[in-house]
Amino acid sequence: MPSPDTSPSPPDHETRLQAHDHTALRLWLRLLTCTSLIEGSVRQTLRTDFDSTLPRFDLLAQLDRHPQGLRMSELSQRLMVTGGNITALADQLEAEGLLHREPVSNDRRSIRLKLSAAGRKRFAEMAAGHERWVVSLFEGLSQDEQRQLLSLLAKLKPGLVEGKRRADEQRATRGRARPAGASRNVA
After folding, report:
1. How far apart are CA 29 and CA 17, in angstroms?
2. CA–CA distances in Å: residue 12 to residues 8, 16, 35, 134, 176
3. Rounded distance, CA 53 to CA 73, Å?
4. What global pTM score does this model have?
5. What are the CA-CA distances from residue 161 to residues 1, 129, 164 (Å)?
6. Distances 184 to 159, 172, 177, 180 between C-alpha atoms, Å
7. What is the pLDDT of residue 26?
8. 112: phi then psi, degrees, rounded to nearest 5
């Protein structure tokens, strides 16, 4: 009987691993593979069941969490995409009657996006489906195993955040230490 690490699966991030690779590397690639598989499944199901995309779902989710609406710049930051991406999505969703734009009273240049009644209804349907799909994707783990995995990842997360902070700080320090006009490439 194959072990969990050697079960047959389609080519993915883990296919480049070798038996002698470090456990941390194996874990990272396993997490990346699982994330990719989950995201791919959610994308496909959104497309099939709702004729929608993950970026559209994410934008609607942000607006659902903020009934007062959000400025387009806030959405851009929250979704980590360009303002142009938000504009294109907002144009589509507005044309479908799922959201509306309104001016921001104290800033004539800003526009706030809000879900319409139809948008709230549509998102509620999509969110219920999304929850069902994600729950079904984790059916291979018992509730106790899911809680254990959640706890282990919660233990990992602060170290990852701190590591990112240190790396950002080092990059900023290296950038300041380089003389003006100096190039990274030294011949």
Report:
1. 8
2. 11, 8, 11, 20, 39
3. 21
4. 0.75
5. 38, 31, 5
6. 29, 14, 12, 11
7. 84
8. -105, 135
- The DSSP secondary structure of 148-181, one letter per residue, reads HHHHHHHHHHHHHHHHHHHHHHHHHHHHHHSPTT
- Buried-exposed string 66-97: b where 16+ CB fall within 10 A, e elsewhere: beebbbbebbbebbebeeeebeebbeebeeee
Mean of the per-residue pLDDT values of the chain? 87
Contacts of 115 (CB under 8 A, 6+ apart): 60, 63, 64, 67, 98, 99, 123
> How far, in Å, CA of 132 to CA of 41, rounded?
12
Across residues 58-64, what is the average pLDDT?
97
- Residue 98 phi, psi (nearest 5): -90, -15
Residue 94: which residues within 8 A CB-CB, separation 6 or more?
A: 100, 101
